[in-house]
Amino acid sequence: MQINKRTDQNIVILEPVGDIGLYNLGELRNMLNDLRQTGGLKVIIHMGKVPGIDSITIGFLLQETELFISAGGTLKLAGLLPGVRKSLLVTETLTQLDAYDDVQAALASFRP
Asked: Between the chain's N and C termini, which has fewer beta carbons within 10 Å?
């Protein structure tokens, strides 16, 4: 899986490309861990190029959300495609994640 990375002021935006599942979570996990360790505590994962996720990924996103909160940061999701949104709704986990329609809305939520 390819993960594009950019910043907007002090907010890191990660954009994975392709399905996310057990077989390819390692790179995203490492990137998020590195960000927490180096003080990159405002992160948006733009899911606009992720057509599908599995149950392992759902658990991973919940866990990462908690890890960022514990570290004093925030992890937000943006641009959920219909298949991913449906997976999160069916598992009743969407309300436990900070999700926005697009990156601009997620960025705006960081600003007063």
From this structure: C
Provide Rg for the chain, Cα atoms.
Answer: 13
Check pLDDT > 90 for residue 112. no
Q: Mean per-residue pLDDT for 23-30?
A: 95
- Domains in the chain, ordered, with CATH? 18-76+83-110 (3.30.750.24)
List b or e across 83-112, with b for residues whose CB sees 16 or more CB atoms inside 10 angstroms: ebeebbeeeebbeebbbbeebeebbeeeee
Whether the predicted pLDDT of 35 surpasses 90: yes
What is d(CA 98, CA 57) in angstroms, rounded to the nearest whole number?
15
